[in-house]
Specification:
The chain is 52% helix and 2% strand. It has 205 residues and is an all-alpha fold.
Length: 205
């Protein structure tokens, strides 16, 4: 559902709550539209043939459809073209929003009722390797450190294995502080009583 244009986490959650709380109203597309208050209500009079906004249904779901419609009216090119055509045809803004909410309800209903095959996620390594995605790329995307880097950092702090980024990071840091070739933290390694387990490097690895 989040792949639909204009559907954010709040609107998606509200529509899921509405659909999950009323499974008997998910039989048809028109039934779901009525549940969300997006079904057209006849309001013809004399020679005027028109429909009006529905005041029934779940108002929170209707508000979610309204927010999606506003997002599409402001930034979706296809929706803007549709609004321009309907405005040229003499429809008011309320009538256009009603049409948009009905179309969005149809799209959301298809998202909710379409069966999607989800691949197994017991081991994501083959899928990641098939897409040629490294652990570093995944870690940067989620804003965390990959496990391999955490283990390497731990070994570097314990003095068992030099960290591969130290030769690259140390000279740049020395240039910034105007030092020579001796890192400022190497002199502390010879201080009496200082254990390598308690050593904390002055920058993140």
């Amino acid at each position: 559902m989040r792949a639909a244009y204009g559907v954010g986490p709040d609107t998606a959650a509200q529509l899921l709550i509405t659909a999950g709380g009323n499974p008997e109203r998910m039989r048809t597309e028109s039934s779901f539209a009525a549940l969300c208050g997006a079904a057209p209500v006849p309001a013809s009079s004399g020679r005027t043939n028109r429909h009006r906004l529905s005041r029934g249904g779940d108002r929170t779901a209707n508000a979610a459809l309204y927010r999606i419609a506003l997002v599409r009216m402001s930034s979706d090119s296809r929706t803007r073209e549709y609004v321009a055509r309907q405005t040229a045809a003499g429809r008011t803004k309320k009538e256009i929003i009603r049409l948009l909410k009905r179309a969005i309800a149809r799209e959301i209903f298809r998202c909710l009722t379409t069966t999607v095959t989800i691949p197994g996620t017991t081991d994501l390594r083959p899928m990641r390797q098939a897409k040629n995605i490294t652990l570093t790329t995944v870690a940067q995307h989620f804003g965390v450190w990959p496990t391999a880097n955490l283990q390497t950092r731990k070994r570097a702090q314990q003095g068992r294995r030099p960290h591969p980024r130290l030769p690259r990071l140390a000279p740049s840091r020395l240039t910034a502080i105007g030092a020579s070739t001796t890192p400022p933290w190497t002199a502390d390694l010879t201080r009496p009583g200082l254990s390598q387990q308690a050593l904390t490097l002055p920058f993140n690895l």
